Amino acid sequence: MQEPRKPQATLELVAERAGVSRATVSRVVNGSDRVKADARKAVEQAIRELNYVPNRAARSLAQGRTNSIALVVPENTAKFFADPYFAKVVQGAAQYVAGTEFMLTLLLSTESDPAKTTRYLQGGNVDGALVLSHHAADRSYADLGSLLPLVYGGRTMSTNQNEIYVVDIDNIAAARQATEVIIAQGRTRLAMIAGPQDMGAGLDRLTGFQQAVHNAGLEPAVIRIGDFTPASGHRIMQQLIESKADFDGLFAASAQMGFGALQALAEAGFKVPADVSVTAVDDDSFARSSTPPLTTIAQFPERQGEIMAELLIKRIQGEQVPEWSIMDTKLVLRDSH
Predict the structure, then answer these.
(1) What is the pLDDT of residues 236-255, one digit of tens each?
(2) 171-298: which CATH topology?
(3) Are the C-beta atoms of residues 109 and 117 closer than 8 Å to each other?
């Protein structure tokens, strides 16, 4: 005959076993530090003995929360999985969230149906969202800031949104520093492969390049727009070579585009840095594996993900956080300049 099923342990049973009040058990379960050491020890022992499992669903319902946040990337899956930046941000956010009661949901929002993601975010499925790789044409998040907490990874292009919270590097300063490295080598005819001009990083890195060139009393030799991918760097460099563009220095707005440009230069017989000095932003696997390895401005996307998650959860919990968090960068000198 099957043994009768044991009733599930409750807060009241734990309190009775530990010899404390129900409120004390609740404080221990919720991680409060307002519990004496001996009482905490008794509660923790009672929890182990009774195999008590907190009813987080009931607690979330009482708090009006889902204890879930979304990380939204408005890019296609091919670009997401090919770009090491996204993986590092997700890793950092996941590591931070793992130490909290929140769950992290990854949403890849394609251009074909951004409204689907917006409906999901508005439907009470999450308490807030982290948004990466935001494009100017995507207005679907413009009004979400008044409905649920958002934190952006990178400067948002939305101009009509309230309560914008951003974690980013100073992209203008990063691009300016990378360009100054080339100028310091005595190069005077500088080209740039810029990023998308519908993204904050794309715009700001172009501005930083232009500032460095003008501060040196020079004029840009040529500027072309890419999409941050190796393929666009390779294609644009091939076009520059075929058009016989005159340049002795190149700043690529991303290491991926720099990687592609270096491949095209090698295929055409150019030597780097003897013929062309090359630098970029992003110290990722593309920068380290290129030939020669790229001199870059390193940002730290894993740390960016941690900060984004921390700020978002604090906002959800009603805490005040800075609207702008600017992260440090680091110049990494290699053989391409």
Answers:
(1) 999 999 999 999 999 999 99
(2) Rossmann fold (3.40.50)
(3) yes
